[in-house]
Amino acid sequence: MKKVSIIIPCYNVEKYIGEALQSALDQTYSNIEILVINDGSTDDSVQVASQFDDPRIRIVTQVNRGLNGARNTGINESTGEYFGFLDADDLWHPSKVAEHVAHLNGSPDVGMSFSWSEMINDDGEALGLTQAAKTKGITAKDIFCRNPIGNGSAAIIRKTAIEDLTHYFAGETDRKCYFDETFAQSTDIECWVRFVLDTKWKIEGIAKPLTYYRINEAGLSANVMKQYDNWEKMYLRTERDHPTFVKRYGERARAYQLRYLARRAVNSRDAGLAWALIRQALQAWPKIVSEEFAKTLTTFGAAFVLRFCGVKFYTKIESTLLNAQASTPAPKSISIGATS
Q: What sign for the dihedral angle of Cα 124, 337, 83, 169?
């Protein structure tokens, strides 16, 4: 029975860490270890985690290195043959680990197994949205442009597979790294693109929402451009290592990223930013309209109404549409990745 390491990066997440830990402990798969990587927290996150009396939990404390640094430490500290990241504000379905272990055990050429994700709000309530994506035949283009994996809590990975991405930063020859710690925020896409382009391993998914991904609408507008800046750094890093690949797919990827950020700006009611971003998306890759007409038109229409008709009118329309959706019992699936 293979051991699975559940890595929980922890930085000032006292509100959520207890729920995340409980969802890890509730896994039906028994051979697990849980590594809480305290990345220099200044709140009561560690105190909350310390209240759990279970020998499978280990708390590792380090100076603040950012999310990528916490993930790298977690991988290095892990003793499992498989591992997965559970971001402290997300949750896992009780059968998640068991289903991924079965997938990986039965597919020796698959190095990463991910699941679909169900969206939850800040209070942990289901939003009726499932982040669905293709699960087979995933290429570097798919990840760069659409990121079917969706979020950092969705995947379980072979330790031997991630070790094929080992690199060292200058002056730290004794510390193995997999995620680029020069990024202020996690940039999963950069690592996953390297995973496909630089190793022999495949990425496949399970078409079930086994991950609960928390959507926090607070401060969306302020974070949109910060996220885009980090995406640009990822773009440049990928271009440095794989210039031919980026030359072929770069503008398409940029368009999808800009469209995704335009939707976030719409959600935060930042009319000017939403309108600017969707226009930039269309300029970067006009074919985004023909590739995904309905989704692009919806984003364009939302940004247009918000920009030229005002917040009150837009909110009224949105409320009407949401009420209409509420009368439909089946949850809505969205075939997008984290950067679509």
A: negative
- Whether 203 and 114 have beta carbons less than 8 Å apart is answered as yes
Mean pLDDT confidence for 128-148: 95
**Per-residue pLDDT at 257 exceeds 70:** yes
Rounded distance between C-alpha atoms, residue 214 and residue 129, angstroms: 11
R_g (Cα) of the chain, nearest Å:
20
Q: Are strands 4-10 and 32-39 parallel, antiparallel or unpaired?
A: parallel
- Name all domains of the chain by residue range, CATH numbers in brackets: 4-214 (3.90.550.10), 220-330 (no CATH)
d(CA 260, CA 271): 15
Look up the pTM and report it. Answer: 0.90
Name the amino acid, one letter, at 67: L
**Per residue in 62-75, pLDDT tens?**
999 999 999 999 99
Dig out the tokens for 224 from the structure: 């949109």
Give the distance, in angstroms, between the CA of residue 295 and the centroid of all CA atoms in the same chain.
20
pLDDT in tens, 273-313: 999 999 999 999 999 999 999 999 999 999 999 999 999 99
* Cα(154)–Cα(22) distance, integer angstroms: 17
Burial of residue 32, with CB atoms counted within 10 A of its CB: 0-12 exposed, 13-18 middle, 19 or more buried: buried
16 closest CA partner among 33, 41, 28: 41
Q: Which helix (H) or strand (E) holds 226?
A: helix 220-241
Rounded distance, CA 310 to CA 102, Å? 51
First to last CA, the chain: 37
